[in-house]
Every structure is written in C-alpha cells, then in structure tokens.
Amino acid sequence: MNPGIGLFIYPVKGVAHAKTIYSKLLGIEPYMDEAYYVGSKVGDQEIGLVPYGNNKGMTEPVGYWQVTDIKKSLRLLLDAGEQVQQEVTDVGRGKLIASVKDADSNIIGLMQLPLFVALYPPYTSSNPISPSNHMLGRPTEKTIARRFGFKDVFTLPVLMC
C-alpha cells in the first residue's frame, strides 16, 4: 500500500519571511532549521522549505510520494517514459529521494524512509499506536505484525531479527 504524498518541498528566496509565514499557517515552529533546509511536521505530513531552491533548478513546489522501494519505483517511472530530474539521493539519516519530470513538465518526487522510521514512526496524536501499549513511542512486535498484515509475531519475516 502506498501511503501517499508524505513531503512537500517549496523553493524559497527569503527563508526568514517564508519561515514566519509557514509557522503561522501550520501553527508550529520548524523541527529542523538549517541553512539548507527548514522542515515542519504536521501529523504524518512534512513541509520543507529549501532556501534559494530556485538557484538549484527548483521552479515550483514538489510533492514526494512515499514508497517502499525507491529504485523500483523510479525504474517504473523511467520505463513509462518519464525523465530523471534527480537521481536517488540520501538526504540524511537514510532518507532517500528522487524525482522525475513527466511529459507535461510536472515534477514527481519519490521518497523512501529508512526501515527504522517505517517500522517505528514517531509518536504523533494521529498515530493510532497509543503510548500506553509500548515504550518510548515504539510499537510492540504484535502491532508491527498487524501493520504488515501478519496475524501474530510468529509469522513475522526474519527482517525483525
């Protein structure tokens, strides 16, 4: 199952002004505020600001579809005739992104989260896993098994070892 678009990146010229506007719009301060990227999370959605992204070829916002196998997903898009905009790139902590340009010049972004984040998403109020049934915001093995369609822990693949 594809969880949908998990990240929107906006190129900005005036990062200070954009940070103020998006903080007011989202009602939160950024969780990451670096010279190269400013990120805010609202539930499972991330909004990213890329200072001077227009100087790096970004001309419009890009939505990044969350996928489980970025190389396979990129290959499917390329086989369908799309053109590589950005090759698979590790942008930190194992998060991979890539993008293609479609026939209408739209940019389609792909994002693959590291396995650890996929299995143990950060606790948010929208996360159905309550802190009372696991420690430190991490789901139990039984919850992970159910999330991936297994009936119990004993049917989990060796991946969990």
- CATH fold-level topology of the largest domain: 2,3-Dihydroxybiphenyl 1,2-Dioxygenase, domain 1
- CATH hierarchy class name of the largest domain: Alpha Beta
Largest sheet descriptor: 8 strands, mixed
CATH architecture of the largest domain: Roll
What are the segments in which pLDDT stays under 50 over at least 5 consecutive residues?
A: 127-138, 152-161
Reading the helices and strands in chain order gives EHEEEEHEEEHH
Mean pLDDT: 79
CATH homologous superfamily descriptor of the largest domain: 2,3-Dihydroxybiphenyl 1,2-Dioxygenase, domain 1
Radius of gyration: 18 Å
Provide an overview of this structure:
This protein is α+β, with helices and mostly antiparallel strands and 161 residues long. It has two domains: 4-115, 2,3-Dihydroxybiphenyl 1,2-Dioxygenase, domain 1; 120-160, no CATH class. It is built from four helices and eight strands; from the N terminus they run E-H-E-E-E-E-H-E-E-E-H-H. An eight-stranded mixed β-sheet has the order 2-3-4-1-5-8-7-6, with helices on one face.
Which descriptors would you attach to this protein?
2 domains; eight-stranded mixed beta sheet; 21% helix; alpha+beta; 161 residues; 2,3-Dihydroxybiphenyl 1,2-Dioxygenase, domain 1
